[in-house]
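Sample intake sheet
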Amino acid sequence: MKKYGMVVFSLLLAACGFHLKGTVALDAPMPYQIWSVQGGALQNALTNTLRRQPGVQIRDNDAEVVVKVLNVDQRKTESAVNQSGSTSEYLLDLNVSVQVYRNGQPLGDTMLVNVQRHMDYADSMVLGKQEEEQTIWREMRQDAAEQIVRRLNYLPTPQ
């Protein structure tokens, strides 16, 4: 009986237009079809996010536009301490600057993306917290890539 309940629940979610985050392309078509990505630390996240857009191809050569990540800055700062003076929470901050080029010329302004997350911390769980931190950084890079691709949708189109 539980099996049927899950099937019905899944169908109801699908009927209302529910999609998992990051699995749906943007509604509007991208202004260019052939892209090259020079993403550094965001290479995989940017490439995968762009590939999900309809009609977009990723190539190293013969691209209409090049997306170049100029800078990726990751910072981890204490944001809270407990009564004994130990760190109880960190703020993870990811700043990314991106420029798009067409025919070697900058296309639009430099894009700046900032993603922040809070991470609880306990000295008693150091190994688990290191793993959690790496997961959070990976999710933040994916979030930054999705924000960049949304902004790429508003680039000036060719005349």
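Comment: The beta strands are 34-38, 57-58, 65-81, 87-102, 105-106, 111-120. The chain has a mean pLDDT of 88.
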